[in-house]
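Structure first, sequence second, as always.
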């Protein structure tokens, strides 16, 4: 803490007017309330709306500030200012402000002091409160509570200039708060196909919106109806309050005239940007284009929204891909974003539309979203409110940019089976790809398991039904083999059934083959005349073994149970597997 601040602290009433606790380097929109940490110096103001709190301060309605808070509030101000100067994301800065305000509001409500000497103890009490909210009251999720406390821990560590590396994590480790375990849900084949089909349907709808909202249409009569491929339609109202109003049924001529003017197309000399009457139409087209761009390139939405029209250039890579290069701050250099070749033509149509509408005269952004009379701060979060509202009225689900990027990553992983290539195309490290994007997938896992078994457990054709994993002809009996059972010998079909290296085949044909083999053994036992010792014939053990296998196969799934049932029905009707049919006919003649 610098000496000037210490001199101010000695005269806190005077320092209150001298300290500037605002953030002039943090960009704000025209309709946003600035963040002024002077609010945190007074009891109860942190829990109020910032606009009202600033008004009270400017009016001088609150005079007495809390004793001992100046140093810690100033330290928090320095910590956040340094984060802003380092160029961290706007979302991170906003979340730091919000959680800090909540922390001070809670301390004011519960009479916990926040000073340089007490802030850590108060922080630990606040962590216990967040644990109670998430685990007992279930007001918030556990991951939300963890992120809130983690953010405050980092701010406190920076404000107090605690020694050591990663001091925020060390401070949080002194509490009972732990990051909840995240489990990736395994998707079934059906679920994944539904997700892909819905994503493709969403993409077709976006394309329909972009094609429908050309310059002539957005300047034409309102409302606008956009026909989709699945017999649905999106109705865009523009500035209309009631799109279902029937002008021919209106009796009041003045109201009818105003309604006709509101629905009429724009005149040739009338700008689309006057009074922002049609900004919703423009935003719907731009948001749809932005979502398609993200799905094509895999670029994150914040980075895509910053693009200027002159930032793009194309380069052929193979037959199908183009390269889109922009500056990526995290990599301190150019990152490569690829898209499909056919998208280039669509993007050129969009660029021509920007010129026709008139954006080129005052806005150089590639995706110049309109703010209805307000200017948003640079790097503000894009909410896709217009497109979300349009898709909420139809059955096609809306997919966020994050979901589109995630789907693209996983689709590329499954198609290419190349992690390095996918990471390069998505401009990510492999660790980031696995941690944040990859999702377990039933079909891919099954394929990988099959490949693993083929590599480590190769099979060969044995004398009997099924497969063998040993080509060296060194059979091994299964555990607890009955003494009457045939010994494995790699010669007789029966011996294979009692060998540990024998493998079943999950197919209807294999079940039919096993059932036919059992039929032979049944015929064989009818010809057997037991001795006086009443010994069990080995054929009985073979029949038992085959029945055990068929029952195990039937119990593993519904479709396999049908295989077994059909196989047994075929044997009862006299239809035997071709492999054993000749043997069975000879045995039946002898019987």
């Amino acid at each position: 803490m610098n000496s000037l601040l210490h001199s101010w602290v000695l005269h806190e009433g005077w320092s209150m007017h001298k300290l500037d606790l605002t953030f002039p380097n943090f960009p704000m929109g025209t309709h946003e309330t600035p963040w002024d940490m002077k609010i945190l110096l007074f009891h109860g103001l942190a829990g109020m709306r910032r606009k009202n709190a600033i008004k009270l301060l400017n009016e001088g309605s609150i005079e007495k500030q809390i004793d001992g808070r100046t140093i810690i509030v100033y330290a928090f101000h320095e910590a956040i200012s340094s984060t802003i100067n380092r160029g961290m994301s706007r979302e991170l800065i906003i979340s730091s402000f919000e959680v800090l305000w909540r922390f001070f509001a809670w301390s004011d409500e519960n009479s916990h002091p926040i000073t340089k000497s007490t802030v850590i103890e108060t922080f630990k009490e606040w962590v216990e409160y967040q644990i109670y909210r998430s685990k007992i009251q279930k007001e918030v999720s556990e991951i939300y509570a963890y992120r809130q406390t983690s953010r405050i821990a980092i701010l406190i560590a920076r404000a107090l200039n605690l020694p050591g590396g990663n001091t925020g994590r060390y401070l949080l480790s002194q509490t009972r708060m732990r990051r909840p375990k995240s489990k990736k849900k395994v998707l079934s084949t059906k679920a994944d196909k539904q997700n892909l089909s819905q994503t493709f349907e969403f993409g077709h709808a976006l394309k329909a919106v972009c094609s429908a909202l050309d310059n002539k249409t957005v300047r034409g009569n309102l409302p606008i109806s956009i026909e989709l491929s699945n017999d649905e339609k999106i109705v865009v109202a523009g500035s209309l309050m009631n799109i279902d109003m029937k002008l021919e049924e209106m009796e009041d001529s003045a109201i009818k005239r105003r309604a006709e003017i509101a629905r009429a197309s724009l005149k040739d000399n009338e700008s689309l940007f006057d009074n922002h009457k049609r900004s919703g139409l423009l935003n719907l087209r731009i948001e749809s284009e932005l979502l398609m761009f993200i799905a094509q390139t895999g670029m994150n939405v914040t980075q895509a929204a910053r693009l200027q029209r002159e930032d793009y250039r194309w380069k052929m890579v193979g037959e199908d891909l183009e390269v889109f290069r922009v500056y990526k701050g995290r990599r301190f250099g150019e990152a490569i974003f690829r898209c499909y070749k056919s998208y280039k033509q669509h993007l050129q149509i969009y660029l021509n539309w920007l010129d026709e509408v008139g954006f080129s005269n005052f806005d150089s952004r590639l995706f110049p979203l309109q703010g209805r009379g307000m200017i948003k701060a640079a790097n503000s979060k894009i909410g896709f409110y217009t497109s979300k509202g349009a898709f909420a009225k139809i059955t096609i689900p809306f997919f966020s940019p994050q979901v589109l990027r995630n789907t693209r990553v996983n689709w590329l992983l499954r198609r290419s089976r190349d992690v390095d290539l996918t990471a390069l195309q998505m401009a990510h490290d492999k660790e980031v790809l696995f941690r944040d994007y990859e999702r377990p997938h039933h079909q891919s896992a099954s394929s990988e398991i099959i490949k693993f078994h083929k590599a480590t457990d190769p099979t060969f054709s044995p004398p009997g039904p099924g497969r063998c994993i040993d080509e060296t002809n060194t059979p091994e009996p299964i555990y607890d083999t009955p003494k009457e059972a045939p010994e494995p010998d790699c010669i007789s079909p029966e011996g294979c059934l009692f060998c540990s290296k024998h493998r079943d085949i999950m197919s209807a044909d294999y079940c039919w083959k096993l059932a036919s083999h059992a039929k032979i053994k049944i015929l064989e036992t009818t010809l057997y005349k037991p001795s006086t010792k009443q010994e069990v014939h080995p054929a009985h053990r073979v029949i038992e073994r085959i029945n055990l296998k068929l029952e195990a196969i039937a119990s593993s799934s519904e479709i396999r149970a049908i295989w077994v049932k059909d196989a047994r029905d075929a044997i009862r009707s006299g239809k035997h597997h071709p492999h054993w049919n000749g043997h069975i006919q000879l045995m039946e003649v002898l019987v």
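Margin note: The chain has three domains: 3-173, 189-245+253-436, 467-590.
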